[in-house]
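Hello again, I could really use a second opinion on something today. My current little project is about how a certain protein chain folds up. You're getting the sequence in one-letter code plus the fold written as tokens. Here's the protein in full, and shout if anything looks odd to you:
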Amino acid sequence: MTNSAIQSPRSDCSREFDFALVLDGLNDLTDDVMDRLFKAGCDDATFSLRYGRVFAEFSRNATSYSEAVLSAIRDVRRASVGADLLRVNECDLVTAADIARRIERSRQLVSQYIKGERGPGNFPPPECWISDEQPLWAWCAVSHWLVENQLVRAEVHEQARFAWVVNEWLSAQRSRAENPELVSQVEAALGASIDTDRS
């Protein structure tokens, strides 16, 4: 972050947000690539190459989570190193064990929430693998339920919802670029654009 940004009037309300971006299109983190990323404003990130993907782990000062994420995306793109942004590394689908870990509760308690044996009931249904032994829930829906029942802070859902919207938009843009004819076919059949945000 530049000195001018640190000294701006809005910085009085800033705090540090930790998140990661997943990038594609980079085969190696060369000195030149790293230098260009840092000069573009990514000097608050740690970059690593895992399973053929570049992970950029940010600790960024901003007035909000959304500002932190969007500014990081802009900085990565401004570096012009051939990196394609895949997603904010926020797991949208979670198991019951994942939920328990995220809210620092026991798996037994989360299981009771799911079954309606504890808490206010109406826990959101799973999104997929519904008939499987390990169904998956949408974290965005779960976090909303948790906030509504005062089990986590409101910002937990706000961040989950924002990351979900960003990832949905990025996915739709990739689909449109990679399969334009198929996207047009689906849009014609459904009568709506698939890249409409559903927040």
Q: What stands out?
A: The chain has two domains: 3-89, 93-153.
